[in-house]
């Protein structure tokens, strides 16, 4: 997929954070982009910002909830209507609840698994027929928490360990169909995740545009080569 001009990408959780950074870099490369969010207001704001890159009409925003397969299918139907299908899927939507197991609520556990794991399943089920047709590329955004467990991370670790395993199994299921599959596992990223407000203290972290560039680089890899699992961490740790 060395030439990305006029390819189409479907990005869940694309109104901010990593999803937005990926959308920005893909649009710069000439890709049509569909971004989803649970809030229509959020996707409208993101589309307005992305249009200012100088490619109006190359991005559309859809209110869709990854927890609902029908919602993902409706968003995919719009992608077909507007762009004829998709070539790239970025399963990015995620949530984090962090607490000792004694304090973690059933609701927090369920939401974490529903969004971070079942949500990716729903996205894949809705988009895979189009990806097979286009011999496209599926990228899931996992985390270093998908191999490294930590205190207060039982729900998040479970979801991301599961996501890494799910993605690698899907890779084996569809590789002979001509579909590439990669999971990206970032460490600390400067986003609004878990209530953070990015500022100068986050300068040492991975930036969202860095992950966007990584996605572009993966898409441009020769067809014969597949980096199926990519760990990404800040070059240095915080000095604080």
From TrEMBL:
GO terms for biological process: monocarboxylic acid metabolic process. PANTHER family: 3-OXOACYL-(ACYL-CARRIER-PROTEIN) REDUCTASE, 3-OXOACYL-[ACYL-CARRIER-PROTEIN] REDUCTASE FABG. This is NAD(P)-dependent dehydrogenase (Short-subunit alcohol dehydrogenase family). Residues 7-193 form the Ketoreductase domain. Transmembrane segments: none annotated. Belongs to the short-chain dehydrogenases/reductases (SDR) family. InterPro entries: KR_dom, NAD(P)-bd_dom_sf, Sc_DH/Rdtase_CS, SDR, SDR_fam. It comes from the Bacteria. It holds the Pfam family adh_short.
